[in-house]
Structures are given as structure tokens and as C-alpha cells.
From TrEMBL:
UniProt domain Transposase DDE: residue ranges: 21-128
Pfam families linked to this entry: DDE_Tnp_1_3
Protein's UniProt name: Mobile element protein
InterPro entries, per database record: Tnp_DDE_dom
Species name: hydrothermal vent metagenome
Length: 130
């Protein structure tokens, strides 16, 4: 299964990028973990060795990647990014919201005064605390 995931990851990202929708002025952002193996099996994992990283999500520690999604109010993709599991959720946001505008909603994990100020310069109103 992991070999299949490794083979289709890049083509899947390319396909999804082609399917981006137009912004509607309302968007939601969140990330989910993509665990490549159980924590106990990390030392034996060879498929994503050197790529996957340990990260922490709301459900605890995992080894793998994070899928960051930005969708409009109709559930259509505006931006997608896959990062290592140890990357802070706020890091890829400025790149993801480039050329977008409106009001964006996120959970408390995205709280950052500097991020709010940077996004305001791009005509993005940031609402966290969902």
C-alpha cells in the first residue's frame, strides 16, 4: 500500500492543482495528518525514509506528512499543500493564500499576530477560534 501511495502522491497533487476553484470570498483552512506507519514501526519504515517526519496533531504523535487544505464555502479546493509532519501548520499559509482574498476561517492552531498582519496586506481577513 505504501509503495502505491509513494507512486501516486506527485501525480495526485498535480491533478488536484488543476482542479482549483475560483475564490468566493469565504474560505476554510485546516490540515490533516497522513501517517505512513504506526509509531512503533518508525525504525523499520523504508518507503519514506528521509522524507517523512514525526509530527504532532490533535490526536497525538504520528510519522508522516501533513495535507493542508484551503477550500471555499462550496467545498471546492482553492489550495493544497503536502508538507512533512513536523512543519508548523502556519508556515505554508502565506504561499497557499497568494492571489486569494476574502474571509478565511481556521482553528486555534493557526493563531498568530504576525500571520494576521501579513494576511491583511493581501486583503485576507483571518478568523480563528473555531
Amino acid at each position: 500500500m505504501l509503495k502505491l501511495v509513494q507512486k501516486v502522491m506527485l501525480p495526485m497533487c498535480a491533478f488536484l492543482t488543476q482542479r482549483y476553484a475560483r475564490p468566493t470570498g469565504i474560505a476554510f483552512v485546516d490540515s490533516i495528518k497522513i501517517a505512513v506507519c504506526h509509531n512503533i514501526r518508525i525504525p523499520q519504515n523504508k518507503v519514506f525514509k528521509g522524507l517523512a517526519q514525526r509530527g504532532k496533531g490533535t490526536m497525538g504523535w504520528f510519522y508522516g506528512f501533513k495535507l493542508h487544505l484551503l477550500v471555499n464555502d462550496q467545498g471546492e479546493f482553492l489550495s493544497i499543500k503536502i508538507t512533512t509532519g513536523n512543519l508548523d501548520d502556519r508556515k505554508p499559509l502565506l504561499e497557499m493564500v497568494k492571489n486569494l482574498w476574502g474571509t478565511f476561517y481556521a482553528d486555534k492552531g493557526y493563531l498568530s499576530k504576525m500571520l494576521v498582519e501579513d494576511l491583511a496586506e493581501q486583503n485576507v481577513k483571518w478568523i480563528t477560534g473555531l
